[in-house]
Automatic annotation (TrEMBL), chains A, B:
Residue span of region Disordered: 104-125
Keywords for the protein's UniProt record, in alphabetical order: DNA-binding
Domain of life: Bacteria
CDD domains attached to this UniProt entry: HTH_ARSR
SMART domains per the UniProt record, alphabetical: HTH_ARSR
Chain ranges of the HTH arsR-type domain: 1-92
The protein's name in its UniProt record: ArsR family transcriptional regulator
Length: 125, 125
DNA sequence: ATTATATGAAACCCATAGGTGTCACGTCAA
DNA sequence: TTGACGTGACACCTATGGGTTTCATATAAT
């Protein structure tokens, strides 16, 4: 129940303009006009992109005076990460293993086993 | 020159059918007809999706007799991973740091410093 | 009170994405 | 040789995505 997610996250990040918007919001909360300044498209177009990002649960917004400030809401990117995680086994077993171990560690904070890097091995192909 | 990448990877994985195709190919090399069996759309439609995945460099294909076998080619998913990596700092600093360190290690194979888990700290900005 | 600013919503345009069916061709089986 | 199988290339259709312009409204500034 983390988010309504009326729009697919994969779909939301498919557009390069929206990806740039997310990067911008990663730096700081911004108003619509402020963001529009970074593009050569109309403010209305930017607004549409923001709506899509909002429907995907990737940004939130709140009004400050007459302007609408948008904030990055990266939680739903986890879905993307989880998807990608499945494929990481195909190109880098070592990194996938490490991530697995780290996530295990996250779930049991009282334990803190000494993590060590495994032997280096070249990519299978 | 790893790939032509005529199609954006983000765009390529935006479609759920194409994501399913990638998952299928993650299990094993498959022919077009074989993949079509997993969907309710026409073979021609599947073929188009495969072309898009191919243009994005995510799959490769080779002919075996009269059938065309497709294989997963996950290298270009790194672009997606790199993009996502930037945002991970906003939801999980520890994991992002570890990944960074691991990748650093990948780049300098002659050195092998003892990596230790660092303390969790809030994003710098 | 009046004007400028910041925004949202609506109507509209056009390119393209995703789907279909058809046809031709190479390959495997009888 | 003949026919079924597996596929690629085309032509076509329709919904939607990303863009625009215009209009209305609320807030800030003078």
């Amino acid at each position: 129940m983390s988010s309504a997610a009326k729009v697919d996250v994969f779909q939301a990040i498919a557009d390069p303009t929206r990806r740039t918007l997310l990067k911008l919001l990663g730096k700081q909360e911004m108003s619509v006009a402020q963001m529009t300044g970074h593009f050569s498209i109309s403010r209305t177009a930017v607004n549409k992109h923001l709506h899509i990002l909002s429907d995907a649960g990737l940004v939130s917004h709140h009004k400050v005076g007459r302007e609408t400030r948008y904030q990055l809401q990266p939680d739903n990117l986890r879905e993307l990460k989880d998807w990608l995680n499945y494929f990481e086994q195909f190109w880098d077993n070592k990194l996938a293993m490490l991530k697995f171990l780290v996530e295990q560690d996250e779930d049991s904070p009282e334990e803190n086993p000494p993590l060590r890097l495994v032997e280096k091995k070249p990519p299978s192909e």
